[in-house]
Backbone:
Protein backbone atom coordinates (compact mmCIF):
# COMPACT_ATOMS: atom_id res chain seq x y z
CA UNK A 1 0.00 0.00 0.00
CA UNK A 2 1.32 3.42 -0.98
CA UNK A 3 2.52 5.72 1.80
CA UNK A 4 0.72 9.05 2.04
CA UNK A 5 2.82 12.06 1.09
CA UNK A 6 3.82 14.22 4.06
CA UNK A 7 1.82 17.38 4.63
CA UNK A 8 3.57 20.39 3.13
CA UNK A 9 2.85 24.11 3.04
CA UNK A 10 4.45 26.81 0.94
CA UNK A 11 6.06 29.25 3.38
CA UNK A 12 7.39 32.74 2.62
CA UNK A 13 8.99 33.31 6.03
CA UNK A 14 8.94 32.37 9.71
CA UNK A 15 10.18 35.08 12.03
CA UNK A 16 10.05 36.36 15.61
CA UNK A 17 8.91 39.93 16.20
CA UNK A 18 6.33 42.03 18.03
CA UNK A 19 2.70 41.67 17.05
CA UNK A 20 1.84 44.98 15.40
CA UNK A 21 -1.94 44.60 15.25
CA UNK A 22 -4.94 42.97 16.94
CA UNK A 23 -5.68 42.53 20.66
CA UNK A 24 -2.24 41.00 21.22
CA UNK A 25 -0.44 44.03 19.78
CA UNK A 26 2.95 44.53 21.40
CA UNK A 27 3.47 40.93 22.49
CA UNK A 28 6.49 38.98 21.18
CA UNK A 29 5.08 36.63 18.54
CA UNK A 30 6.29 34.09 16.02
CA UNK A 31 4.81 34.72 12.57
CA UNK A 32 4.33 31.95 10.04
CA UNK A 33 3.73 33.68 6.71
CA UNK A 34 2.24 31.43 4.04
CA UNK A 35 2.67 32.10 0.33
CA UNK A 36 -0.14 32.96 -2.07
CA UNK A 37 -3.29 35.08 -2.05
CA UNK A 38 -6.33 35.23 -4.37
CA UNK A 39 -6.93 38.93 -3.59
CA UNK A 40 -5.11 42.04 -4.78
CA UNK A 41 -6.03 44.76 -2.29
CA UNK A 42 -5.06 48.30 -3.29
CA UNK A 43 -3.10 48.83 -0.06
CA UNK A 44 -1.44 45.42 0.25
CA UNK A 45 1.91 45.61 2.05
CA UNK A 46 2.93 41.96 1.59
CA UNK A 47 2.97 41.56 -2.18
CA UNK A 48 6.25 39.67 -1.80
CA UNK A 49 4.20 36.79 -0.35
CA UNK A 50 2.06 36.37 -3.48
CA UNK A 51 4.56 34.04 -5.12
CA UNK A 52 7.74 32.14 -4.38
CA UNK A 53 8.26 30.68 -0.94
CA UNK A 54 9.52 27.20 -0.13
CA UNK A 55 7.76 23.94 0.69
CA UNK A 56 8.01 23.02 4.37
CA UNK A 57 6.75 19.84 6.00
CA UNK A 58 4.58 20.27 9.09
CA UNK A 59 7.10 18.86 11.63
CA UNK A 60 9.77 21.22 10.27
CA UNK A 61 7.46 24.22 10.70
CA UNK A 62 6.68 23.20 14.27
CA UNK A 63 10.38 22.71 15.05
CA UNK A 64 11.23 26.16 13.69
CA UNK A 65 8.49 27.79 15.76
CA UNK A 66 9.66 25.97 18.88
CA UNK A 67 13.16 27.44 18.53
CA UNK A 68 11.79 30.83 19.66
CA UNK A 69 9.83 29.40 22.62
CA UNK A 70 6.93 31.78 21.96
CA UNK A 71 3.70 32.28 23.86
CA UNK A 72 1.94 33.71 20.78
CA UNK A 73 1.99 32.40 17.21
CA UNK A 74 0.32 34.19 14.29
CA UNK A 75 -0.36 32.42 10.98
CA UNK A 76 -0.62 35.01 8.24
CA UNK A 77 0.00 35.54 4.53
CA UNK A 78 -0.75 36.19 1.80
CA UNK A 79 -3.95 34.37 2.51
CA UNK A 80 -3.30 31.35 4.75
CA UNK A 81 -6.65 29.70 4.02
CA UNK A 82 -5.74 29.39 0.34
CA UNK A 83 -3.64 26.37 1.39
CA UNK A 84 -5.61 23.40 2.75
CA UNK A 85 -2.66 22.34 4.87
CA UNK A 86 -3.11 25.39 7.08
CA UNK A 87 -5.95 23.70 8.99
CA UNK A 88 -3.83 20.87 10.46
CA UNK A 89 -1.03 23.40 11.04
CA UNK A 90 -3.33 25.57 13.16
CA UNK A 91 -4.53 22.57 15.15
CA UNK A 92 -0.97 21.35 15.70
CA UNK A 93 0.08 24.78 16.98
CA UNK A 94 -2.86 24.83 19.40
CA UNK A 95 -2.02 21.30 20.56
CA UNK A 96 1.53 22.47 21.25
CA UNK A 97 0.16 24.97 23.75
CA UNK A 98 0.61 28.23 21.87
CA UNK A 99 -1.93 31.04 21.76
CA UNK A 100 -2.66 31.01 18.04
CA UNK A 101 -4.16 33.65 15.79
CA UNK A 102 -5.01 33.53 12.10
CA UNK A 103 -5.00 36.62 9.89
CA UNK A 104 -7.38 36.08 6.97
CA UNK A 105 -8.83 38.28 4.25
CA UNK A 106 -12.42 37.24 4.97
CA UNK A 107 -12.93 36.04 1.41
CA UNK A 108 -12.58 32.34 2.26
CA UNK A 109 -14.59 30.06 4.55
CA UNK A 110 -13.40 30.05 8.18
CA UNK A 111 -15.78 27.32 9.39
CA UNK A 112 -13.15 24.55 9.52
CA UNK A 113 -10.58 26.53 11.51
CA UNK A 114 -9.87 25.09 14.97
CA UNK A 115 -12.06 27.04 17.41
CA UNK A 116 -9.13 27.55 19.76
CA UNK A 117 -7.64 29.88 17.15
CA UNK A 118 -8.41 33.59 17.33
CA UNK A 119 -9.58 34.34 13.80
CA UNK A 120 -8.79 37.91 12.73
CA UNK A 121 -11.13 38.42 9.79
CA UNK A 122 -10.92 41.39 7.44
CA UNK A 123 -14.07 42.89 6.03
CA UNK A 124 -12.65 44.47 2.91
CA UNK A 125 -13.73 48.08 2.46
CA UNK A 126 -14.63 49.59 -0.94
CA UNK A 127 -11.27 51.37 -0.98
CA UNK A 128 -9.49 48.01 -0.97
CA UNK A 129 -10.96 47.29 -4.44
CA UNK A 130 -11.82 43.79 -3.17
CA UNK A 131 -15.01 44.32 -1.13
CA UNK A 132 -17.01 42.25 -3.63
CA UNK A 133 -15.13 39.17 -2.39
CA UNK A 134 -16.20 39.46 1.26
CA UNK A 135 -17.67 36.17 2.48
CA UNK A 136 -20.43 37.45 4.73
CA UNK A 137 -21.37 33.90 5.77
CA UNK A 138 -18.29 34.06 8.01
CA UNK A 139 -19.97 36.63 10.24
CA UNK A 140 -22.38 34.11 11.75
CA UNK A 141 -19.38 31.96 12.74
CA UNK A 142 -17.65 34.65 14.79
CA UNK A 143 -17.26 34.24 18.55
CA UNK A 144 -15.81 36.36 21.35
CA UNK A 145 -12.46 34.68 20.62
CA UNK A 146 -12.39 36.28 17.16
CA UNK A 147 -11.84 39.78 15.79
CA UNK A 148 -13.10 41.68 12.76
CA UNK A 149 -10.78 44.21 11.13
CA UNK A 150 -11.61 47.14 8.87
CA UNK A 151 -8.65 48.70 7.04
CA UNK A 152 -9.84 52.19 6.18
CA UNK A 153 -8.63 54.18 3.17
CA UNK A 154 -10.76 57.34 3.50
CA UNK A 155 -13.91 58.78 5.03
CA UNK A 156 -16.12 56.87 2.59
CA UNK A 157 -14.56 53.63 3.86
CA UNK A 158 -15.18 54.76 7.43
CA UNK A 159 -18.86 55.43 6.78
CA UNK A 160 -19.22 52.08 4.99
CA UNK A 161 -17.57 50.34 7.94
CA UNK A 162 -19.98 52.00 10.37
CA UNK A 163 -22.87 50.70 8.28
CA UNK A 164 -21.53 47.15 8.58
CA UNK A 165 -21.24 47.51 12.36
CA UNK A 166 -24.97 48.18 12.55
CA UNK A 167 -26.11 45.82 9.80
CA UNK A 168 -24.34 42.78 11.28
CA UNK A 169 -24.34 43.82 14.97
CA UNK A 170 -20.62 43.19 14.87
CA UNK A 171 -19.66 44.67 18.23
CA UNK A 172 -22.04 42.22 19.89
CA UNK A 173 -20.31 39.26 18.23
CA UNK A 174 -16.62 40.00 18.78
CA UNK A 175 -14.01 42.72 19.08
CA UNK A 176 -13.87 45.12 16.12
CA UNK A 177 -10.67 46.80 14.91
CA UNK A 178 -10.46 50.01 12.84
CA UNK A 179 -7.08 50.68 11.24
CA UNK A 180 -6.03 53.51 8.89
CA UNK A 181 -4.20 52.63 5.70
CA UNK A 182 -0.60 53.67 6.25
CA UNK A 183 0.14 56.77 4.16
CA UNK A 184 -3.43 57.20 2.84
CA UNK A 185 -5.82 57.80 5.75
CA UNK A 186 -4.82 60.33 8.40
CA UNK A 187 -4.68 58.39 11.66
CA UNK A 188 -5.68 61.32 13.88
CA UNK A 189 -8.76 62.00 11.73
CA UNK A 190 -9.88 58.38 12.02
CA UNK A 191 -9.40 58.51 15.78
CA UNK A 192 -11.49 61.69 15.97
CA UNK A 193 -14.32 60.13 13.95
CA UNK A 194 -14.41 57.13 16.26
CA UNK A 195 -14.55 59.37 19.33
CA UNK A 196 -17.14 61.66 17.75
CA UNK A 197 -19.43 58.79 16.84
CA UNK A 198 -18.89 56.97 20.15
CA UNK A 199 -18.03 53.69 18.48
CA UNK A 200 -17.13 50.69 20.63
CA UNK A 201 -14.28 49.66 18.34
CA UNK A 202 -10.54 49.40 18.94
CA UNK A 203 -8.49 51.98 17.05
CA UNK A 204 -5.15 50.53 16.04
CA UNK A 205 -1.97 51.55 14.28
CA UNK A 206 0.50 49.11 12.76
CA UNK A 207 3.12 49.07 15.49
CA UNK A 208 5.65 47.15 13.41
CA UNK A 209 5.62 49.82 10.69
CA UNK A 210 6.17 52.55 13.28
CA UNK A 211 9.22 50.66 14.54
CA UNK A 212 10.73 49.14 11.39
CA UNK A 213 8.91 50.45 8.33
CA UNK A 214 7.70 48.00 5.67
CA UNK A 215 10.67 45.65 5.48
CA UNK A 216 9.86 41.90 5.44
CA UNK A 217 10.40 39.84 8.56
CA UNK A 218 9.37 42.53 11.04
Residues:
Amino acid sequence: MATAAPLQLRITEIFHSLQGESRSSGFPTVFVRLTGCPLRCSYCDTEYAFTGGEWWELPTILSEVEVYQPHYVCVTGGEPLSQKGVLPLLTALCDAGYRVSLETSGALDISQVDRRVSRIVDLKTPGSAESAKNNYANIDLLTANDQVKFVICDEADYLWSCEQLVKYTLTERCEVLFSPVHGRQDAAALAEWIIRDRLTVRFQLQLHKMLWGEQPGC
Observations:
- Residues 52 and 124 are 25 Å apart (CA to CA).
- Residues 8-210 form a domain with the TIM Barrel fold (CATH 3.20.20.70).
- The mean pLDDT is 93.
